[in-house]
Amino acid sequence: SRQIALNISGAELFQRVRNGNGSFTLGVGAGNTGSGVIGPGSVSDPAAATGHSYQINFTVAGGVTTYDVVDTTTSTTVVAGQPYNYSGAPLSVSFDGLTVDLYGNPANGDTFTVSPSTDQSVFTTIRNLVTALRGGRGTALVNALGFALSDLDQALEKGLSQRAAVGIRLREIDATNAVGEQFGLQYQTARSKLTDVDYAQAVSDLNREQVSLQAAQQSFVRVSQLSLFDYL
Questions:
Q1: What beta strand segments (E) does 35-149 contain?
Q2: What is the pTM of this model?
């Protein structure tokens, strides 16, 4: 009576893949002219994450680079006027439970965006990668390749999770078959006891039990008839 699915949903495997790092996705401003590159990032504090969209704005004045982080969902600034000094090591920027790594030297007016992850098909991810390889160059290509690799990682994780789900079903089928074999063995043993009877031994055992029963009955009768008058 156990029912187990035989297949998995192709839409779930190929179409419903979270883009970015699985929690949020990054973007580059269309007018960026600097060499700034943004890494995949991570959720550093899930309790503080809001699920909002953000924009990182860079300002270069007098040779000093600063950045602001604006919550574009609520139109509020969450980080203001922070210095940006790139010395070859990534600079981690944290806000509202999220952390992203920045590289390179952004120009004045450059922006990066941070948005909640959405479902994206594997085919869209591959198309974006092909487009980046064909038309991108310089910093734009580096950012595009980074985004595409993050999306491919999510697609791979989705494939592995679906494969694990299929493995669990196969293991359950094996366990169900093993239980069925055990029940089959028990049924065969019970049937053997019922059908493969040694009649001579059974008659002998029955006679022995009858003799024992008669002796017990006679002993009970004798004991139950005893009274004090039998000794007077």
A1: 37-38, 42-43, 54-61, 64-71, 76-83, 91-95, 98-103, 111-116, 119-120
A2: 0.70
